[in-house]
């Protein structure tokens, strides 16, 4: 019997006694167009011992109707006033009963073996608190793209979390409940007496702030699975998002974690900034904002030019795409960009 077959048999035994091992938290806001595909990808999991906590975060569309129409008893609907992605995740965690908490944004999907492999990964690595996977991108229509996120999976340090965020996106991690309990806090000074894990004052960068807080304030490790088990939807709105707002949120996440370990932040900040600027430059390139891409790349090189040697391929491709964006016709540029980005994915 293989390890995965044994894991599946254990899951079936657990399911028979009515104790879900995994709680899948799906925050929902204005994503009805994608929600059914998202939910179907969970229900198709080869690992069956899970519950779904679908949190309607004051959504103005019919997300709740889609969940209510599901006849699977493992799927539960929670409704609340709008509190943002962090608030929806916090509610889901508080309502969850599983030992492991998996997050899935309502416009993303999972491959069928996602939970099975993560359960096996966490069971085999008791010191790991955050298990994550590589991701493949898909476009707004659900068509798979040739690019994705292939993160560092082993020997992950707090510096890796800060500088490169190997977790990647909010639909990639499966986290031990205890790891989240270890960073639980409340904000009574703001009239918030419920447990929080993600900081609800963030509307962007709430995940990277949380991952680094786990890395700096607990002994839990991070480790990944190098298979693309998460299908991450890249939409037009995401590509054209205001980079100044994204950068401001990231800056604030740095300041929040500086209070935990100022020496660590001081040591790695210039490199982390360089990578963040380069990431935003790539987003600017994808949204065809050449002026912003050039500005951000300049900021990256000034912050820490060693990114050119540390990740020569990614940095030179981003630099090349930024330069070519202003001098090639759109059709030629688009075809070239696709080939270059696929080469460094």
Would you give an account of this structure?
With 345 residues, the protein is an alpha/beta fold. The chain has helices at 3-16, 32-43, 63-68, 84-95, 114-124, 158-164, 177-181, 206-217, 236-239, 243-258, 262-286, 290-303, 307-310, 312-325, 330-344; strands at 22-28, 50-57, 75-80, 100-103, 109-110, 128-138, 144-149, 174-176, 185-187, 192-196, 221-233. Helix 2 links the parallel strand 1 and strand 2. The protein contains 15 helices and 11 strands. It has 2 domains: 3-237, Spore Coat Polysaccharide Biosynthesis Protein SpsA, Chain A; 261-344, no CATH class. 50% of the residues lie in helices and 20% in strands. The two termini are 35 Å apart. Helix 1 (3-16) packs across helix 5 (114-124) and helix 6 (158-164) packs parallel to helix 11 (262-286).
Protein topology:
Layout: H1 3-16, E1 22-28, H2 32-43, E2 50-57, H3 63-68, E3 75-80, H4 84-95, E4 100-103, E5 109-110, H5 114-124, E6 128-138, E7 144-149, H6 158-164, E8 174-176, H7 177-181, E9 185-187, E10 192-196, H8 206-217, E11 221-233, H9 236-239, H10 243-258, H11 262-286, H12 290-303, H13 307-310, H14 312-325, H15 330-344
Helix pairs in contact: 1-5, 6-11, 8-10, 10-11, 11-12, 11-14, 12-14, 14-15
């Amino acid at each position: 019997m293989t390890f995965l077959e044994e894991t599946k048999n254990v899951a079936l035994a657990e399911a028979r006694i009515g104790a879900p091992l995994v709680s899948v938290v799906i925050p929902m806001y204005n994503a009805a167009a994608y929600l059914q595909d998202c939910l179907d990808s969970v229900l198709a999991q080869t690992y069956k011992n899970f519950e779904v906590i679908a949190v309607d975060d004051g959504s103005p569309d019919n997300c709740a109707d889609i969940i209510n129409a599901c006849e699977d008893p493992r799927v539960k609907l929670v409704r609340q006033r709008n509190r943002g992605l962090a608030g929806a995740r916090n509610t889901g965690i508080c309502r969850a009963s599983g030992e492991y908490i998996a997050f899935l944004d309502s416009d993303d999907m999972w491959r069928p073996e996602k939970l099975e492999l993560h359960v096996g990964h966490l069971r085999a690595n008791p010191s790991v608190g955050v298990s994550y996977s590589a991701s493949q991108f898909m476009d707004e229509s659900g068509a798979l793209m040739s690019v994705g996120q292939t993160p560092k999976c082993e020997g992950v340090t707090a510096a890796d979390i800060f500088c490169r965020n190997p977790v990647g996106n909010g639909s990639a991690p499966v986290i031990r409940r205890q790891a989240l309990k270890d960073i639980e806090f409340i904000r009574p000074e703001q009239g918030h007496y419920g447990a929080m894990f993600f900081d609800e004052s963030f509307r962007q960068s709430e995940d990277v702030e949380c991952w680094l807080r786990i890395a700096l304030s607990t002994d839990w490790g991070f480790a990944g699975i190098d298979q693309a088990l998460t299908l991450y939807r890249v939409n037009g709105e995401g590509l054209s998002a205001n980079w100044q707002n994204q950068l401001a949120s990231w800056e604030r996440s740095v300041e929040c974690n500086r209070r935990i370990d100022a020496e660590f932040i001081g040591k790695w900040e210039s490199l982390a900034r360089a990578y963040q600027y380069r990431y935003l430059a790539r987003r600017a390139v994808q949204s065809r904002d050449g002026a912003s891409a050039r500005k951000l790349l300049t900021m990256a090189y000034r912050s820490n030019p060693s990114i050119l040697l540390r990740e020569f391929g990614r940095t030179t491709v981003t630099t090349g795409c930024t330069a070519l964006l202003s001098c090639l016709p759109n059709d030629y540029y688009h075809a070239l960009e696709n080939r270059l980005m696929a080469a460094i994915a």
